[in-house]
Description:
Blueprint: H1 3-26, H2 32-36, H3 39-72, H4 78-90, H5 93-104, H6 109-116, H7 125-150, H8 154-161, H9 166-194, H10 198-203, H11 214-222, H12 226-251
Helix pairs in contact: 3-7, 3-9, 4-7, 7-9, 8-9, 9-12, 11-12
Amino acid sequence: MPLGLAVPAFLGLAFLVLPLAGLLIRAPWSTLPQRLTEPGVLAALRLSLLTATLATAACLLLGVPLAWLLARSGLPGRRFIRALVTLPLVLPPVVGGVALLLVFGRRGPAGEWLDAAGFSLPFTTAGVVVAEAFVAMPFLVIAVEGALRSADARYEEAAATLGAGRWTAFRRVTLPLILPGIAAGAVLCWARALGEFGATITFAGNFPGRTQTMPLAVYLALEQDLDAAIVLSLVLLVVSVVILAALRERWMSP
């Protein structure tokens, strides 16, 4: 490898690895079991797992049909729709939280209707799920759309010639073909929802036991207890490593 490439390559590797190594070095290993069982940590962990799972379920319910619309339908303006779908990937999460607040807040167009029905989203656990789903759904849609585009449409055509309706062909033929893509997208979606911070704190707030997820707990702990922040960060780091290991065979093979 030329020296002109090797030096910046190893510098880039060090830039990415050293902060993680510092996290491991500074971790309070002697008190780690005790800190992991603290009520605040367990409450934030339970809430994070619950809301990320619910957000992923909502993304699956809405995102798979949306991916099919982008990949298989002849709807005009699909490029514009695709740009709108992927916008949360590049949109600052805080801006997404403000947008959600303007729409679903009590004075927003959807919030007024929800408030009249006796239901409120901002600063509630349901609001956390909405914020996480908003920022995480593009990961699922992109993965499923890619799987749909790579799937052989001739199987669906063969099912149609045998008398299968569109729904039956989708359920019996298309869905099994794209199931690995759906699984990979769901895992990425869940991981993104678990690590969401900006939209959550803006739209749902930071209330312990109700809206305080793990990233929000890390932010709060930085101001009070550095060791607690490190422990919470370690938990998120372990989850990220597990996610990468689960997707290694699909996206990280040489």
